[in-house]
Amino acid sequence: MKVNNLCLLLCVVATFLFSCRKEEAAGNSATDTISAAVLDQIKAAGYDVTGIRQTEEGYIVENDLLLPYSDVAKLPGRLYLPAGKTELVRASQLVTGLPRVITIAVTGLPGSYISATDQAIAAYNSLNLKLRFQRVVGSAQITIQGRDLGVVSGRWPYAYAGYPSGGNPYPSITINTNPSAFGTPPDIVALRKSILHEIGHTIGFQHSDASNPAFSCGPGVYNGPAVVGGVIYIPGTPAGPEACSWMLTCLDPTCTSNFTPGDIIGLRYIYG
């Protein structure tokens, strides 16, 4: 009996350790594991920490926006958007050195993810911007990778990415491979829209309804800040959130188009 009890205890401990590691890999949603000082820094920059998650790269806020650990201490102060101007907004960091081609690789994911990526790339390139995209095999400036981020709850998490740094796009987009995210087999339209959105973050676009996420997420799903972290209004874009914008905080699965008229104005204003 003593041997059996010891074996049982070891099994329980091993299961516990495996569960913890799996949860850590997927991201931890408990804010009590993140120091108060870090939470205060992120809030002071204008980001809402509701539902904040921690990964090996940094902190995920506002559904899918990654703030790397190295950037938290130097986050720009919160910016008050001009009265009546909430869309479209960009980060203070952009891709520079235009015109240029940004290479994108899809690694460790099945063909449906590659097809969705090709469709997203074609959508951007159809706008004839000075910033163009090309899918490659192997080393790339943006790598699309998969990870089981856990069961989607409250429309989150489907994917995440970060802002540009040093004039270059954020180097990775992480897609949730959990079947609850895009289904089995994956929904190509939903994948395309998510990849379009995350590429938007990597080249410097913030959520177009960041000052009022209830516009796309609905009440009670996500409570955004009254001001928005480190963003700049793009002249000529709609004064308020635009339905089906590719950069809404929560994407509407019924919106099948790639970009709205306001989105195109914003993209061409920034990237020609």
TrEMBL record:
GO terms for molecular function: metallopeptidase activity. This is Zinc-dependent metalloprotease. Residues 1-25 form the signal peptide. Keywords: Hydrolase, Metalloprotease, Protease, Signal. The keyword Magnesium does not apply. It comes from Chitinophaga nivalis. Transmembrane segments: none annotated. Pfam families: Peptidase_M57.
